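Protein modeling request. Please complete all fields; requests missing the sequence field cannot be processed.
Requester role: graduate student
Desired output: 3D structure, C-alpha cell encoding
Chains: 1
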Amino acid sequence: MKSKDKNKNFNVPNTLTVIRCALVIPFVIFFAYQNYMAAFLILAASGITDMLDGWIARKFHKFTELGAMLDPLSDKLTQAVVAICFAVREPMLIPLLAVFVVKESLMIGGAIKLMKKNKKKPSGSKWYGKVATVLFYISFGTIFAAGIWGKGDSPVLDIILLSITAAFMIYAFVRYAQIYVQIIHSDDPQYNLDVDAIMDKKNKNQS
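Delivered output (207 residues):
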C-alpha cells in the first residue's frame, strides 16, 4: 500500500477536527473555575477550527471518510459540553439543551441503526447542519460575552437568539431525517458500508 493512501487521513482538516475535540477539556476546566475570559477564547478558537477545517477540505480537496464522520461528531461533542456548562450556570438555557439532547440522541441512534442493521453509511455534514452550529456559537458566544464584559442580562435578546438557534436545530434535524429515510430505501452502492472490506483494510495496515 502506498504511503500516500495509508496516511491520507492525516491531513490538516482532520487535525483541526481532532484539536476541536481536545479543546473541550480546557474549556470545561476554565469554565468550572469561573475563568470565563479564557473559556470564551477557547470557545472562539473551537469555532474558528470548525470553519477552517471545512474551508480547507473544500479548497484543497482534502475530503476523507474519516473526516466526514469526525466533523459532525466533534460538533456534537463541543455543543453538548458547552450547552451543559451553560445550562448549569444559566437555567434559562435548559430548553435549548433539551432540544439539542433530543435531536442529537435521535440522530446518533439513527446513525448506529443505519450502520449496524442496514450496513449503510450515515450522511456527512450538510450546510444546514453547519448553519445550526454557527448559530449555536453566535448565541452562546453573545450571551457569554455579555456576562464577561458586564453588559448585564438581556432577556429579550437571549430569547431571540436561543429561539432562532433551536428553530434551526429542528429544521436541520428534519432535513437530516429526510436524508436518513432516503439512504435506507436507496439501492445506490455509494451508501453501502462494506464492513468486511474495512476490517480487511485495517488488518492489512496493522500487518
